[in-house]
Write a structure and sequence with these properties.
Blueprint: E1 7-11, H1 15-27, E2 31-35, H2 38-47, E3 52-56, H3 64-74, E4 79-84, H4 88-96, E5 101-105, H5 109-125, E6 137-140, E7 143-146, E8 151-153, E9 159-161, H6 164-175, H7 183-191, H8 201-213, E10 223-226, E11 230-233, E12 237-239
Length: 242
């Protein structure tokens, strides 16, 4: 973080909500800036050092899910999504596209503050989403991961970009290749969150990553599933750069 006081950007098209949220966060010792849409959000991010973005899903123009995906691909800024209570798919897709957490509307401001502080604690402890692979190129099966550029390159030189969520999950599995990791372990290692009962977030993220690295989705060979166990990256890993 750039300042002793964390700087939170609140993006919501409802002026009453963003004003109330900012007032509460400022009373709790945080610094805030408001934006009514993705365009204003981009303008703030271009000129301010922001430690976390609170981002509403339902906004005019570019919606929150699209903005979340774009932010996660371009940097490591933490994102907390505000979603409608009944729209479970928004939460799943949001986490897949790089959000660090979500909170359903209507919400208790104290819970919002607690989640923001939890994300800030996690991100302050994290040196790099690339972990021990930061700055390195890593070969696994027919792929090479370029951790600096967050792309995977196949044997013919074709590149595939990774979202923040894809990248974090792949790094965790590469660092623990041939180990069976439970859904709970993967959730904790990738986001610092505790998986709720029946939470399918990790399953959806695995499916998304498989679509990028598997040759045959019906018979996945790189990420294998263990019944009642979890998932395993079934490949040898070679670090190409010292």
């Amino acid at each position: 973080m750039q300042n002793a006081t964390p700087h939170i950007l609140v993006v919501d098209d409802h002026s009453e909500i963003r004003t109330a949220v900012c007032r509460y966060l400022e009373k709790s010792g945080l610094r805030t800036t408001m934006a009514k849409d993705a365009r204003e959000m981009d303008a703030v991010l271009a000129t301010e050092n922001i430690d976390l973005v609170v981002l509403d899903v339902m906004m005019p123009g570019e919606d929150g899910l699209s903005a979340c995906k774009r932010l996660s691909q371009s940097g490591d800024i933490p994102i907390l999504l505000l979603t409608a209570l009944s729209e479970d798919m928004d939460r799943i897709v949001g986490l897949e596209t790089g959000a660090d957490d979500y909170l359903a509307k209507p919400f208790n401001p104290r819970e919002l503050l607690a989640r923001i502080r939890a994300i800030l604690r996690r991100t302050s402890r994290t040196v790099s989403p690339a972990g021990s692979l930061a700055g390195k190129r890593v070969r696994f099966a027919q792929w090479i991961l370029d951790s600096d550029r967050r792309v995977i390159v196949d044997s013919e030189g074709r590149e595939t970009s990774l979202t923040s969520a894809d990248f974090k999950l792949l790094v965790v599995m590469l660092e623990r290749a041939r180990m069976v990791l439970s859904r709970e372990q993967l959730m904790e290692l990738t986001s610092g969150r505790v998986a709720a009962p029946l939470d399918r977030t990790i399953d959806n993220q695995i499916s998304r990553l498989r679509r990028k690295i598997e040759r045959d989705l019906l018979r996945p060979r790189l990420i294998t599933t263990y019944r009642n166990g979890g998932y395993c990256l079934a490949a040898d890993v070679e670090v190409l750069d010292p």
